[in-house]
Records
---
Amino acid sequence: MAGHEGHRQRIIKKLDSGALEEHELLEILLFNAVPRRNTNDLAHRLLAAFGSIKGVFSASIEQLSAVNGIGSGIAAYLVCIGKFYEYYRELPKAEYPEHFELETFIQFVKGAYKNLKQEVLDVYLLDESSSVLLRRRFTLNQKGFVEVSPDDFSKLMIEYSPSGIVVVHNHLYGTSTPSVADDRTTKQVQVACSFHNVLFCDHLIYSPFGVYSYYKDGKMQKISQECSIASILDSISI
């Protein structure tokens, strides 16, 4: 068993290198479906039966189940992966702009957030050239309530080391004018950004009546000054 687990760990370490062969990729995918067996033979049998990974994921549950060692559960797992890939491949390259430019981003927000049925808070991570690295969504799937854990936010900053961020929040009803809670959240995010040396570019709030920008209103600059680590330390210094 120790040798089996060691083999799994060695092959998993090769993932990031991009040096895996076709049967090794399939072998790793089968780890979750077959947690306590050697999946190398299964991977080779599948490739022999269907010619390639594409052939494997194009096969039906019945066809996959006909391969020795592949029961209906493993077959369903492989079909699910194939369906997921088809769905993912048909999605747009990104669900948000590739680059942050304020006016363009505001127009994006107007379209992207108008049909949401719950309040969300999205953090867009930017690299040094203001390209969008990814979006992380914070929500509890409850109307009128969004919570951002400081720990989760810090983990996000540590994991991706962005150069900047943009926060987008939506109001389901009423105007886009920031509430007291919105201001408090903005200040908390700014403190965290200052701690991680990340530029907090803007906090945009969508409502059916428009999009509010902390930056355009001048509040972003004020909050950045008041809630930086340096300002906080100065205010408590003796």
Note: Strands lie at 121-126, 132-138, 164-170, 199-207, 210-213.
---
Amino acid sequence: MAHRYVRVQSSSGQLHYGLLQADRTVQLLDAPPWRNGQLTSLELAFEDYRLLAPCAPSKVIAVGRNYAKHAAELGNDLPKQPLLFMKPPTAVTAADAPIFYPPQSERVDYEGELAVVIGDRATDCEIEEARSKIWGYTIANDVTARDLQRQESQWTRAKGFDSFCPLGPWIVREIPAGAQLQTFLNSAAEPVQSASIADMIFSPEFLVAYISQAITLLPGDVILTGTPEGVGAVKLGDRIRIAIEGIGSLENVVHPKIKAPASKELALQ
């Protein structure tokens, strides 16, 4: 089994990177793995930690219409160059954490994706150099308020709600070149999305090079590489499971968003 690198919060509240063992214990690292973190003698038992998103990116850069059939299902032409947008770090959430359905939207979609984790600062890279900047891979759900996306000329709000970027559950260093990506809803045996990552229009290393020529990528940053055809709407209570060969599966349930109580300061204004 490939090494599975995780980020966890201990029962005492401390954050750690570590290596997930077969018995679900986590052997702790002394630094993030892309910062040359080394294994320590410390371990956390399964009941002593909470799994977080496997990295805390300074930014999440996503790619639209990177599978031809997905572009076609949305009625769009194939892009001549990568179509980029960003999701804020506050959209990132963990495996098994809720996806909150915002009251501003009447149509929220799942989008299963392969996510690339950057391991080294990348600026003005060519493709060969870009390959060395990819530290590993995880799974993402590019959750989208589709009605808002169609209403607005830019996608920041539609793509950027809190909890709209589930990541995880862990990072692996390598995956098969033609790994299958599949998305499942609830208990259905048949996937609603199913494609090979080899079907991407622009490869992960091309994307890293292309993005780095405009935006410096930092260690721990994440690139979402696009979703295949089969995107669809979710409703409250739906469970979304995204599986990628060589990584595992990312699962989240859709919950209503409950408005946080006003702070004391706001209440006094």
Note: The CA atoms of residues 92 and 165 lie 5 Å apart.
---
Amino acid sequence: MSTILDRIIATKKEEIKSLKTKFTYQDLEQAEYFSKSCKSLKEALKRNKFGIIAEIKRKSPSAGIINENLDVAKQAKNYEVAGASAISCLTDFTYFGGSNDDLLNIKEVSSLPVLRKEFIIDEFQLFESKAIGADAILLIAEVLTKEEALHLTIIAQSLGMEVVMEFHSQSELYKLNVFVDVIGINNRDLHAQKTDVQNSFDLFKFLPKDGTFISESGIKTGYELRALQKCGFHGALIGQSILKQQNPKEFIESLHTKINAA
């Protein structure tokens, strides 16, 4: 029986086929952002005691509708004012309600590094990511072979973008390559859509000692962030917990207060 991740990847393959009939590599290379330099997500995380990557998305397969009437530009401004280190933008439409326009809108109003959070399985998506202004891209170990991950990492970096590579289990870590900029531990099982922050603590001891690490998904409190920071993580990617707040700026500031009190 297929899981939600299987269905997402099947849909993505069809979307990529369609994308390639509409655009060429040359079309993407002529986009305004393609020739612009990227901001470093890795350096942004390390400027603070602990960095928060604040996410923008409208829905998810696990949570359903999160914030259907999201004002992307306003949210991005709030994230920057509140002291977020970077912004993560879901561009998948079918399952997350996002679009490339969301990322473009963020770039217009914010100077923070922007991570394109997408199910990237083809190098054409990397050229698309650069064309819409992504500073960094996400690679998901679970949907790539070791060779594919290495190839996509090298291509992304040759275009000037950084790579966040995401892992959920110890069995995936052999796919890591030395060029990856940021290692992410996803606390959500993408097949079962169940989340447990303990996953980050369990996997940390298996990570290389000299990397830059973030924890992703299911994080709700400043106390969790303090524990992650003490464990050795440099930041966390937080979506739903922020997006459900009436005042996201105050919520992010409260998280920073708890981190800095450690």
Note: The first strand starts at residue 51 and ends at 56.
